[in-house]
Amino acid sequence: MSGLDLNYSEVEEELRANVRALLADRAPANVTLARTEAEQTTDLALWRSLADELGVTGLPVPEELGGAGASWRETAVVLEELGRAVAPVPFFGSCVLATAALLAVGERKVLSQLASGEAVGALTVPFATAPGPGFPSGVHADDGLLSGTVRHVADALVADVLLVPALAGDGTPELYLVTGAQVEPMVSLDMTRQLAVVTLDRVEGVLLASGAEAAAAVGLALETGAALLASEQLGVAEWALTTTVAYAKERHQFGRPIGGFQAVKHRLADLWVLVSQMRAVARAGADAAASGADLPLTAALAQAFASGAAVTATEEAVQLHGGIGFTWEHPAHLYLKRAKSASLALGTADRHRARISELINL
Amino acid sequence: MSGLDLNYSEVEEELRANVRALLADRAPANVTLARTEAEQTTDLALWRSLADELGVTGLPVPEELGGAGASWRETAVVLEELGRAVAPVPFFGSCVLATAALLAVGERKVLSQLASGEAVGALTVPFATAPGPGFPSGVHADDGLLSGTVRHVADALVADVLLVPALAGDGTPELYLVTGAQVEPMVSLDMTRQLAVVTLDRVEGVLLASGAEAAAAVGLALETGAALLASEQLGVAEWALTTTVAYAKERHQFGRPIGGFQAVKHRLADLWVLVSQMRAVARAGADAAASGADLPLTAALAQAFASGAAVTATEEAVQLHGGIGFTWEHPAHLYLKRAKSASLALGTADRHRARISELINL
Amino acid sequence: MDAELTRAIGDLLAAHDPATTPVADFLGARFDAGLAWVHFPEGLGGRSAPRATQQEVNDAFAAAGAPTLDSGRHGIGLGMAAPTLLAHGSEEVRRRFLRPLWTGEEVWCQLFSEPGAGSDLAALGTRAVQEEETGDWIVDGQKVWTSLAHEADWAILVTRTDPDVPKHRGMTYFVCDMHAPGVEVRPLRQATGEAEFNEVFLSGVRIPDAHRLGAVGDGWRVAQTTLMNERVAIGGHAEPREGGMIGVLARTWRERPDLHTPALQDAVLRLWVDAEAARLTSERLRQQLAAGQPGPEGSAAKLAFARLNQQISGLELELLGAEGLEYEDYSFRRPANPSMIGGSPGYRYLRAKGNSIEGGTSEILRGIIAERVLGLPQEIRVDKDVAWKDLPR
Amino acid sequence: MDAELTRAIGDLLAAHDPATTPVADFLGARFDAGLAWVHFPEGLGGRSAPRATQQEVNDAFAAAGAPTLDSGRHGIGLGMAAPTLLAHGSEEVRRRFLRPLWTGEEVWCQLFSEPGAGSDLAALGTRAVQEEETGDWIVDGQKVWTSLAHEADWAILVTRTDPDVPKHRGMTYFVCDMHAPGVEVRPLRQATGEAEFNEVFLSGVRIPDAHRLGAVGDGWRVAQTTLMNERVAIGGHAEPREGGMIGVLARTWRERPDLHTPALQDAVLRLWVDAEAARLTSERLRQQLAAGQPGPEGSAAKLAFARLNQQISGLELELLGAEGLEYEDYSFRRPANPSMIGGSPGYRYLRAKGNSIEGGTSEILRGIIAERVLGLPQEIRVDKDVAWKDLPR
User: Fold this and answer.
1) Is D230 annotated as catalytic?
2) Where in this chain does the record put each Acyl-CoA dehydrogenase/oxidase N-terminal domain (chains A, B) (predicted)?
């Protein structure tokens, strides 16, 4: 983790401003809250805007494949803003997990569809899967026909294509492209990223990679995901901090803004320190994903730190808002649910610490 | 832990008042601090007063053996006050550990000497030894001649008799009474309870118990010690709380008592809650030691909780005193050192949690 | 327990078989025999006996299988309204309300908090204006976080009667008829999806002056009686080892070895230790208070319980991993019998967040401990000598 | 770095071989070449170059093996006195003091804190009274927590010159000769047993008016320059992974498998993660500040570093168990080169307790972050319009 660039470039700040402006316009809190009870819990119109108006769906994909030819660093900035808005779009599943897997196996056609946003992809693994040794074993391949059930799949509900890790009869890891699976919504703790059960019953798949290549692709996708999820968590935590500081300045009790009470001030100061640390860790994760240098350790660090930090930030937001923060109408709970779910996604902090232990012999 | 009596009886409160008055008179902070740099770091005059004037050295020993015929509950109250004064007397080693072992094996002569305070005893085990399976293996017995070195022995420096757990040639646990060992002081983190290295080189011992009886006696002594150490830790923490609250009322910064600043108030409130919880846990430990009911679990709980709590309390005391709390002249460091050392004594909280796990299958 | 009490209980049980007597009848008879709240005066459910004997009386009835009211539905009445009615109600008010409250025939709720007056209850703005002709009070305003408002017959209500004096001095306390015209109850949905509480809108609600508790302008003092009893009610009951939230976690741990890792085990054990320490502390307080009055120490129990519930339910989700990503049901509903322990792990996690807010935030409780237990200086008050109407909001 | 700078460095190195030139001579030449603090004016060790180039200049000298001063002995001079002298000193003062400070020929200390003025530095009471005849100032009072006072030649000193105005307005800042009559230095022993700091008693110490920095009564503003630089100096340096206290713990863990338990392993890992996060945060700040001015963000680094040092050193003792019961040496001594990392585990544990007190308590730093970074309301000041002499103490 030396030589990391931990700051934002001007291009990144400009990208952030564009994404933030779009989300402020199209995905204000009341709209996002209402969406959680709509028939379709994903905001596909917003998704189209992100793809068509801003072109942020293919940032790490080379230009010749229809992408923006940028890197995971810029993708991470988009994730920060999506986290800050808990925007219900399949960006993480399609533009991070699926894209990372397709980049790894050198696939081009679907990749360009995902990059342009004309198709949504999802990596068909349980969202709680941690990176590291081991290959998902929920699906079995039999002569190119896939069978199995995978629960807690992120962003599969609106996916056009599924990237399905499967085990061949002899246990060889394989990675398939699938379009005709049965996908059912699950009631999910996180209301703005509804998970799904994917059921495959002798469904045809297109083999993308096999053996070590398949294992490496899935592993890299999960590691990239873990490294970048910290940026989304940072966005969630920043919302919590910013909104709570603003509320503390405006809400009066005992004739004073509650933000003038020292115990509240000190907690918000501690929270600011925590969010500052998350930012450094998230930038390290994004930079490592982009360069590939030291990615396993940096990804594990990112999740070991950011998971708990985002939960703390949103828990403090609920608490310091008092009663109003516990109501359905206030968006704080959406962030709390996102933060807590994200802390379980791609492995709990506990698992990531265990991974650090293996990687640096601690 | 049902049916526990968690309060103090009137007799116990009277006992407390007597011990506290004596300590306030004979062991004020400046005297105790000076004692740590004296040739003799134990205050033997204070010890004599506790034994002769107050008669608190034999509380759990039956009257016919020269004791007070009370119980470990009353002993615990004395420990609270000794902790509150970080009094440099060998009470814990002699009146808890050694006395418990002698009571367990049914010894009478030395027990009555310890009960009256005319002799000081020490259990020759490393002070960090945790209760539970396993027998101290530092000393070996060969035809009644004992050899070995035991480091970190509490209260051995002024001990007249040592209770030495030893392993016979065939590995049988045995418990001996020894009077002629070489005892050397160690520079100890805890300045008011200096530890010692006990060296035995073919020293004659009197066999008190052998086999299961010896193992049980040492085990019970350690468990009783762990249960009662929480009371000493409670006293340490109460000093920290009381002294810090008083200081916060009196110390002015920014034209106000620092105890009027909300962040300080809230921390002291949290500390008060913690000390209240320590008190309940310490009383549970004392009651369980007295009744024998559920002692292994209650002793483990007592140390699992009180170790960290006393450290927190004294750390908060140092911090909230600001610079003065970090000076040699202020007694806060004596309490910090006692609390941190006590958290390592008779097993760290970590080990006690592991013991709880075994005992209740958690 | 003295012989007279024992005899009275025996007589009552002999005359009214707990197994066959309808609940309200049995409780009515218990009230009339002065065995409801033994320390209350005669004729008001008591017999001016020492408060300390109440527990023994309750135990004797419990041993005989006598019925009691559901504490969820009647907790506010029994725990908060009753002591306040006794302490501050007129003789007429006490006679009118205590008996049906005790028998469960009338359900009570509490109209205290407002959107602008949460921790700072004394800032409340629900206006009560006295009509000159009738002496009745006309009440307008909005209350929030009202459990049971949709089922309650009566409410204890604090209002602003004089906006021109500093806030603590211009409040008045009433009993409010929840069936009166102008009382509108709307469910208040919370983060869990359900609506355990309500918002209550009061528009021109008429309250007779006879239903006032305490003097005009003395509402703050009256409310203190209620609040002190609330804090004790929340933290004061005995719990067995591994009762409450820690029991759920311990059970999950024991039943699911597939989820075990060494680090999670230590985390579970830490919380077990903390929960057991908190339980013993409440038990010690209960032993001390058996005979005494509630004090600020109850605040500590509530503080510890809120933190533990949050930590334990948070760890449960971490332990469950993938399963923790699920939820039971976010659809809007009004739970008949809300439980913080029941429901799914996700529900427990979300619901526990309310524990450090409802019934006094943890921040307020720390302040109470610091000032009332430790005697630390009070917060600097900028609102002390300011008329309520001039306070910044 | 521009060509001129590169050439100047090359010229200097050519003329003064770092390997053979005495340190003070080399540094003196560097000062005279305007390569000490490049952003300082010409003649004062600088050349009015952009502050951002300083790091490159330092790197170039380091690469050539050029000598630097020991930061322990000269840190106060270089980090705090120099920027203050530059910002507020008269031309005479800057010319007199900056060069020997830079060359290490004169050692500096800081006379700020007093027994009654710790966090509330502006409450300080050391009196300075101006003599009418000479214009000299006569200083009486007591300072504490003075590192290096027993070795220092000069001190930066804040005094009370007008007790009749509110505290922030009646202070004046001086350079004080530590060899002047009336300056008495006594070692201040701390919890570790040693005396890293001193108490300094000032009795009728005479300071010429020419050694005043800033206007009479303007001492608070001058002191802000010093303090802002102190906070940055403490938290602002780059650290390699597993540098500092966490490296000690990680080494112990790796070298002592006999001490391992699963629970302790997770505790070690948690602190490793936190330490790495704090390190990356400082590194990020360093990257941001390379070109900029120190701001309140440095407070966060110090806050995090203090907490981590305390947690890590506390865990180290727990990990060591029996060995943690030992200490190295409590006998009184003045360490020549104090290090928080060196020494025994027990020493590290005790010494780390000072980290959240010295150079601004963690409580003060939280307040700075809350007010200056987050813009939250300031504490209510009761001392704002009160003459210093009338403040409660």
Assistant:
1) yes
2) 10-117
ipTM > 0.85 (yes/no) = yes
Tokens of A214: 């398949």
Q: Which of C240, C273, C370 sits opposite B265 (nearest CB)?
A: C370
**Which candidate in D106, D196, D199, D230 is catalytic?**
D230
- Cα→Cα distances D58→B52, D68, D175, Å: 71, 9, 28
Give me the residues of C, 143-162, that contact A with CB < 8 A.
144-145
Block means of pLDDT (10 residues each) for chain C, length 393 residues? 90 95 96 96 95 88 93 91 96 97 97 94 97 97 95 98 96 98 97 96 98 97 87 59 95 97 96 97 84 69 95 98 96 86 93 94 95 96 93 90
Q: Which residues of B17-49 are buried (b: 16+ CB within 10 A; e: fewer)?
A: ebbbebbeebbebeebbebbeeeebbbeebbeb
> Does C392 sit within 8 Å of A340, measured CB to CB?
no
Which residue does chain B place closest to D347, by CA atoms?
B189
CATH class entry, domain A215-359? mainly alpha
Tell me where in chain A the CATH 1.10.540.10 domain(s) lie. Answer: 10-119
Residue range(s) in chain C whose domain bears CATH number 2.40.110.10: 108-216
Neighbouring chains of D at 3+ CB pairs under 8 Å are A, B, C
Contact D273 A301 (CB under 8 A): yes
Range(s) of chain B covered by CATH 2.40.110.10: 139-210
> In chain B, what is the greatest distance between 2 CA atoms, to the nearest angstrom?
73
Tell me how close the Cα of A303 comes to any Cα of chain B, in angstroms.
Answer: 25
CB-defined contacts A:C, below 8 A: 132
| Topology of the domain comprising D223-373 | Butyryl-CoA Dehydrogenase, subunit A; domain 3 (1.20.140)
Query: Quick check: D174 and D137 in contact, CB under 8 A?
Result: yes
Would you tell me which residues 290-309 of chain C have a C-beta closer than 8 angstroms to some C-beta of chain A? none
Structure tokens at C283: 């038990």
List all residues 6 or more positions away from A144 whose beta carbon is below 8 Å from its beta carbon. A204, A205, A207
CA distance C198 to C256: 38
For the segment A257-311, what is each residue's pLDDT rounded down to a tens digit? 999 999 999 999 999 999 999 999 999 999 999 999 999 999 999 999 999 999 9
Fold adopted by A139-210: Butyryl-CoA Dehydrogenase, subunit A; domain 2 (2.40.110)
Q: pTM for the complete prediction?
A: 0.95
Q: What CATH class is the domain A10-119?
A: mainly alpha
Burial of D168 (0-12, 13-18, 19+ CB in 10 A): middle
Residues of D in contact with A6 (CB under 8 A): 280, 283-284, 287
The active-site residue, picked from C230, C255, C318, C371, is C230
C-chain residues within 8 Å CB-CB of A325? 357
User: Any idea how long chain C is?
Assistant: 393
Residue of A nearest to D247 (CA): A362
D320, D348 contact by CB (below 8 A): no
Closest CA to C300 of D275, B293, B153, B268: B268
Tell the CATH topology of C3-103: Butyryl-Coa Dehydrogenase, subunit A; domain 1 (1.10.540)
Picking from B6, B257, B269, the nearest residue to C283 by CB comes out as: B6
pLDDT digits (tens, 9 = 90+) for B86-95: 999 999 999 9
Surface of D (214-273) touching A: CB under 8 A: 240-241, 250, 253-254, 265-266, 268-270, 272-273
Measure CA of the first residue to CA of the last residue in chain D; give whole Å. Answer: 54
CATH for D108-216, among 2.40.110.10, 1.10.1790.10, 3.30.930.10, 2.10.10.70?
2.40.110.10
Within an 8 Å CB–CB cutoff, is residue D276 touching chain B?
no
pLDDT score recorded for residue C232: 54
